[in-house]
Amino acid sequence: MTTLTTGSPDTRTYAEFGRPLWRRALFNREMAIIALLLAVVVAASVMVPKFATPVTLGYLLFDVTPILLIALAMAPVMITGDIDLSVGSMVGLSSVTLGLGTQMGLSVPVAGLIALLVGALGGLVNGLLVTRIGLPALAVTIGTLALYRGIAVGLLGTTAITQFDRWWTTLVKSKIGGSGIPTVMIVFVLLLAAFAIMLHFTPFGRGVFSIGLSKDAAVFSGVDAERTRLVLFVLSGLMAALAGIYYALYYNSARGDNATGMELQVIAAVVLGGVSVFGGRGALHGVVAGVLLIGVLSKALQLVNITSDVVSIITGVLLVLSVIAGSVLSWIQAKRLRPAAPPVKTS
Amino acid sequence: MMLGKSRVGLRAMAALAASSLLLAAGCSSGGAASPAASGSAPASSAPAAANLTMTFLPKNLGNPYFDTSFKGVQAAVQAVGGTVTQVGPAKGDDPAGQVSYINTATQQQVGALIVSANDKSAICDALTEAKTAGVKVVTFDSDTNPECRDLFINQATAEGIAKVQVDIITSEIGDSGEIAILSAAANATNQNAWIDMMKKELAASHPNVKLVDVVYGNDDDQTSFDKTAGLLQSHPNLKGIVSPTTVGIAAAARYLSTSKAKGKVMLTGLGTPNQMREYVKDGTVTEFALWNPEELGALAAYAAAAMVKGEITGKEGETFKAGDKEYTIGADATVLLGEPYKFNKDNIDNFNF
Amino acid sequence: MTTVAAPPAPGVLSRLGSLARSRETGIFLAFALVVAATTVKNPQFLFSGDGWRDLLLTPAIVAVVAIGQAVVIITRSVDLSVGSIVGLTAYLVGSLFVAVPGFPIPLVFLVGIAFGSLLGLVNGALVAFGRVPAMVITLGTLYAYRGINVVWTGSNRINASDMPRDFLALGTQQVLTIPVITILAVAILAMVGWYMANTRGGREFYAIGSDPDAAELYGLAKTKRVLIAFVASGAASGLGGVLFAARYGTINSQVGDGFELQAIGAAVIGGVAIVGGSGTVLGAVFGAYLLLTINRALPVLGIPDFWQRAVVGALIIGAIILDRVLANRQAKRLMEDRSAA
């Protein structure tokens, strides 16, 4: 993706260290989106009848779980400057795999494991095409978006598999005590912790950011860029497959067209959450807030009987505004810092 | 990010939040909130009064068939003194989208939910949850698994629907030759049931008629149109097409009317008079069938109201009034609207839906 | 990129040679092969009146949209909002006919193109002045335009009977057996193709797509070119919307859903490199014809239509791998030439 994009993000790092730590921690893109999320939650609780209930929390989290899961892996992929458009199709393919597996008499864990393998394999194909052959991620994953969806629809044809082990579907739909929080959130929180540690507290994670800022510089400083990007694509496929298993069990239905178009929802949420499409910046708390923001908005509007389409307008406008605002402001800042020399990108 | 930028950023975000909320508030005061208000207020002051707030959830919005059903629903709900809101996914064939709306209805504590299912089991658990929360669930047009709803309003028996279409097409093609079916979504419960029945009916009574293909237009105009073109090419000896879906038959008729196959390839199926009028008059289509979706919607709404009031519970043999007609609940908590009606150029102008 | 390098003094023979080697020829041959194979299986596919018409007509609307998309991709951007623009314009056209019965048909085309251009201008302005990647902006406008469309349309729908017969007839009319819509697509292809290949302005798109920074340092008006590219894509999609209304006659809020992938797929299959700077609009049009003809051919060849999308995906991936292999080979040859000289 870096090759597709041009801009002037270069004064950023310079200015970022010109501020005390507490300001850097509090006044940034992620905090802005979290503040916006809180504001929307408070406003919705006041204005929308029946919003402020544990039931809302449950339905809300059930709805956004697949997007949350995929976003965890999409964020690092986009931080390296790549993108994975095939995730929605992979959700479909994985749920079909799970369905076919259980139909053949396999237990849910075994069939789920196969589905995860399919996801990893799909991610590997994406990753190999991008890193070994050197194709742009956007083009590759547009291709596999069609390919994986096609396989999913082709495998299952006219049928939908709707017989899953009751124990598993009940588990997926269960909530923790009376809190209204779905049990699957435990899995999500563990995965969030794992991804956060990987991305923000390991050399591997620092490699991810440095690849996004400048791939050449990263390679010269000893980061195995190809391997890192390959691993991230495999993770992306895995998380999409996990989301597919959840999707099939939660909706009790494995169909080839499950989660059509989900890739755009994920990318919109990730970008809204502060991940730069140029690569090189972003943080998982922002991403989670981005997903929840869209989820809360759509749930609140649904409760006052406004259809999801208004939500899509808001999603679109928020997306454009959030990117434009950042861009305009950094342009103003760049002018103020170096009024004489306009920034020139050299790479 | 930087010093000044982040402050302005926060301000921009706050402004954005405010504007999006204004939007939400503006819309909610604009009428969408009124059903919730008018429905819940009396219910809380007098618990005995029936909660006649209803949600109408079609397979998708922007579908003339369901729009006509909704007219019937509105009229019936008005007659019983309730309120109804129509919500639904924008695209057809989206069970996950329906689940989200069912959950919302549960949360809003509506009295009844009238739904045409995109998938017979995918929306099942959400419906069960709604029932547990006290919402009466009435399916119409396309059913779910019987245990997931309180009542199903059946437009006509599957046998009746299949037979009327097979009768029309076989008589039009002289009871021999190749025919094909242009269906809606590959997973649609009602479509697949009808197709199975048609296959049985053909095998039993029309040995010389061969069903050569079943294609799926997904209730999407363009897809159905292109699939019709594909059918004619893949099967040069095709003599007839049956399209048991209103979107499909209209698209197929539009393709045939400009094609050289017009008048040579017969077309029938389930369609609405308004969409088919032009093609019946220009001779593309001789006869097609349907029940009256407006009556179907009205029946569903009356049944839902009767359930909310506790007049019926879904047991076989119970009766209730829909307008001035009386209906009896049959086996599996199913109510039958009647036999499908045949439309042709002699009677089509008597109908407007 | 490679196209910027001028070929050394082409003789007639080498010109023929490069024609045979060109990507457009390859895609056209693939298209011809698909048509031939399908026709052998079922002569109706090519030799019946309807078959011939549909062969030319079905891909034409996507082809028009793909022409605009190709211009955008050549400048190293991408326009994901084309499907939503097609939908919004189609509904505008339908509403015009409902609101003003007897609205003149040529004017409808102008209104559609102007409206599409306006939506494209919004994209272009956001991308060019905001200095934000086109993918994000157009992903946002994909949502926003579609949302506006759905809110505006509601559960309404424009039926064929709401539009004038003459307008609908354009959708299927043929001149000397060639459908009018196809003629229109070819005319636009000729215009844009000539402009992109032979004018200074056209070559600037390639220069910017090959190396935006170098182009800017050289003094090319990058902002202006990016704007023009997006307006062109919007205009093409607007026209696509008008044509959709004429061809399909029924317009709901979901018209054009998924066109973006078909248009991008067509361009990429047709040899327009997604990294910008190379490819032609002719290739994109051939790509559209190949893509949609395969879709139509599969059922005739006895492959269940459930597998269509898988084939399309495999085709896109095959095309970009082929691109890379060819580019590598050419780079190698150029290196050899250089070291030989």
Topology:
The complex is a heterotrimer of chains A (347), B (353) and C (341).
Chain A: H1 12-16, H2 21-26, H3 29-47, H4 54-79, H5 87-103, H6 108-131, H7 137-156, H8 166-173, H9 184-200, H10 203-213, H11 215-220, H12 225-250, H13 262-272, H14 284-303, H15 308-337
Helix pairs in contact in A: 3-14, 4-9, 4-10, 4-12, 4-13, 4-14, 5-6, 5-7, 5-12, 6-7, 6-12, 9-10, 13-14, 13-15, 14-15
Chain B: H1 3-45, E1 53-57, H2 64-80, E2 83-86, H3 95-108, E3 112-115, H4 124-132, E4 136-140, E5 151-154, H5 158-172, E6 177-183, H6 189-205, E7 209-216, H7 221-234, E8 238-243, H8 246-257, E9 266-269, H9 273-281, E10 287-290, H10 293-308, E11 319-322, E12 325-328, E13 334-336, E14 341-344
Helix pairs in contact in B: 2-10, 3-4, 5-6, 7-8
Chain C: H1 12-21, H2 23-41, H3 44-47, H4 49-57, H5 60-74, H6 82-99, H7 105-130, H8 134-153, H9 165-170, E1 174-175, E2 178-179, H10 180-198, H11 200-210, H12 212-218, H13 222-248, H14 259-269, H15 281-300, H16 308-340
Antiparallel strand pairs in C: 1-2
Helix pairs in contact in C: 2-15, 5-10, 5-13, 5-14, 5-15, 6-7, 6-8, 6-13, 7-8, 7-13, 10-11, 11-12, 11-13, 14-15, 14-16, 15-16
Overview of this protein structure:
The complex is a heterotrimer of chains A (about 350), B (about 350) and C (about 350). By secondary structure, chain A is mainly alpha-helical. Chain A has one domain (about 1-335): ABC transporter involved in vitamin B12 uptake, BtuC (Orthogonal Bundle). Chain A is built from 15 helices and no strands. Chain A has helices at about 10-15, 20-25, 30-45, 55-80, 85-105, 110-130, 135-155, 165-175, 185-200, 205-215, 215-220, 225-250, 260-270, 285-305, 310-335. In chain A, helix 5 packs parallel to helix 7, helix 13 packs parallel to helix 15 (about 310-335) and helix 14 (about 285-305) packs antiparallel against helix 15 (about 310-335). Mean pLDDT of chain A is about 85; it is low at about 1-10. With about 350 residues, chain B is α/β, with parallel strands linked by helices. Chain B folds into two domains: about 50-155 and about 295-340, Rossmann fold (3-Layer(aba) Sandwich); about 160-290, Response regulator (Rossmann fold), CATH 3.40.50.2300. Helix content of chain B is about 45%, strand content about 20%. Chain B has ten helices and 14 strands. Chain B is elongated. The model of chain B is unreliable at about 1-50 (pLDDT under 50). Chain C is mainly α and about 350 residues long. Chain C has one domain: Orthogonal Bundle (ABC transporter involved in vitamin B12 uptake, BtuC). Helices cover about 75% and strands about 0% of the residues of chain C. Chain C has helices at about 10-20, 25-40, 45, 50-55, 60-75, 80-100, 105-130, 135-155, 165-170, 180-200, 200-210, 210-220, 220-250, 260-270, 280-300, 310-340; strands at about 175, 180. In chain C, strands 1-2 form a two-stranded antiparallel sheet. Mean pLDDT of chain C is about 85; it is low at about 1-10. At the A-B interface, helix 1, helix 3, helix 4, helix 14 and helix 15 of A face helix 1 and helix 3 of B.
